[in-house]
Design brief:
single chain; 373 residues; alpha/beta; 9 strands; binds ligand G3I
Length: 373
């Protein structure tokens, strides 16, 4: 379990809002956004098992949807072939049901956090298309049918397309080509015909990725396969992406005939060693003190700039509320965020809507106020 860092918060607006974290009768995010779209958060194992009661409470009081940060990835659900481990995923779903959450499953097919055995044989070579098809069938069928009617939507395929629109040369792609995507959607639909099905990816504001995702959505639909929404992961920074480009993609996906979800929203305030960083987990850099400037607290001016940019994005989501079905933060409180450890481990970031004491940041009040107005 992580250790919470208590960092002095210099933002006066945050202190003013300290009372609206979800005490009964007060307007919370989920109440304010009730008729707009689901407001979700990713939850980790620590929150599921009672090791992090602060984030658990903040999630329960302020969010209407949840997605597991890690415990439903294939390396955890099926660590060796045929041996499934559902304990944590079961707890996650039970918690979601007990708290009236819209539950999304994440994720059925992803090149990262897939167990080593999935795509290779005992000789270390890629398995045949027939064997991989059988493994996908067995994994997707077991997982989706276990939560049939309880998990309302699935990230079926995650991050298959690169920023320039070319296809990621994952093992799934090497063995089955583009066909692994329609196959995964078909298998998920067979296992739970009522579940919503999504394609989810980062850096969606890039023109190349936008066009290829639109082509993918159209191909699936033309083949009669179910796809309900595109998930635009919102791993954004202070200078990227241009909000206009993000909006173009949102509109392009809606135009292709599906809903849009902002699935993994966090806004890093830290300097990046790479431009336009999306969420390529393999791109990591060594720690440098100079790239960890706010370890002792966030200056007011930086907090205000962060608030302004996050508010701009929420204004965009509200403007397109007829197209957006869910906005999900990738974590509850700042301490929870993977951003503290990526692309550089051991930094102090301020990427989420709730601070390290579980207090709503100024932007939460701004969002609530803008809806009231
Ligand atoms: O499971 C091991 C555990 O056994 C070990 O004790 C522990 C020690 O650090 O590590 C555990 O694995 C960690 C895993 O999360 C589960 O907690 C990995 O080190 C860590 O790298 C991994 O990071 C996750 C990352 O996906 C992996 O690719 C992040 O928490 C998670 O936020 C992140 O989420 C992804 C989305 O699924 C897809 N989109 C991008 C997003 C951010 O990368």
């Amino acid at each position: 379990m992580k250790t919470r860092k208590f960092i002095p918060c210099l933002c006066a607006a945050t202190l003013l809002l300290a009372g609206c974290g979800g005490r009964s009768g007060e307007v919370t995010l989920k109440k304010a956004l009730k008729d707009k779209f689901y407001i979700g958060t990713a939850l980790s194992v620590a929150q599921l098992t009672g090791g992090d009661t602060l984030s658990e409470r903040v999630a329960r009081e302020n969010f209407s949807a949840i997605v597991p940060e890690n415990c439903m990835k294939s390396m955890f659900l099926q660590p060796s072939e045929g041996s499934f481990f559902f304990d944590e995923a079961d707890k996650f779903v039970a918690w979601g049901e007990a708290n009236g959450m819209w539950i999304t499953g994440h994720c059925l097919v992803w090149h990262s956090q897939a167990p080593d055995w999935f795509c290779v044989g005992s000789d270390g070579q890629n398995v045949s298309p027939e064997i991989l098809t059988q493994r996908l069938r067995s994994h997707i069928t077991a997982v989706v049918s276990r939560y049939k009617g309880r998990i309302k939507g699935w990230d079926v395929v995650n991050e298959a397309i690169l920023d320039d629109g070319s296809w990621r040369k994952s093992k799934f792609y090497e063995i089955l080509g583009e066909e692994f995507i329609p196959l995964a959607f078909q298998l998920a639909h067979e296992a739970d015909p009522d579940a919503e099905l999504y394609y989810n990816d980062y850096s969606m504001a890039f023109e190349g990725k936008r066009s290829e995702v639109v082509r993918l959505v159209k191909t699936l639909r033309e083949r009669g396969l179910r796809i309900d929404a595109v998930g635009m992961q919102g791993h954004i920074g202070m200078s990227y992406p241009a909000i206009e480009e993000f909006e173009k993609s949102l509109l392009a996906f809606a135009e292709a005939g599906v809903k849009v979800m902002i699935t993994e929203l966090d806004l890093t305030v830290l300097p990046s060693p790479q431009p336009n960083a999306g969420a390529a987990v393999e791109a990591t850099f060594e720690y440098q003190q100079a790239l960890n400037p706010y370890a002792a607290g966030l200056p007011d001016s930086v907090a205000a700039a962060w608030t302004g940019r996050m508010a701009d994005f929420f204004r965009l989501f509200l403007k397109h509320q007829d197209k957006v079905s869910r906005v999900t933060l990738w974590g509850v409180c700042d301490d929870d965020s993977w951003r503290n450890d990526w692309p550089i481990p051991g930094r102090v970031d301020y990427a989420l809507l709730f601070d390290r004491q579980g207090k709503p940041k100024a932007v939460v009040g701004e969002i609530i106020q803008s809806i009231k107005n």
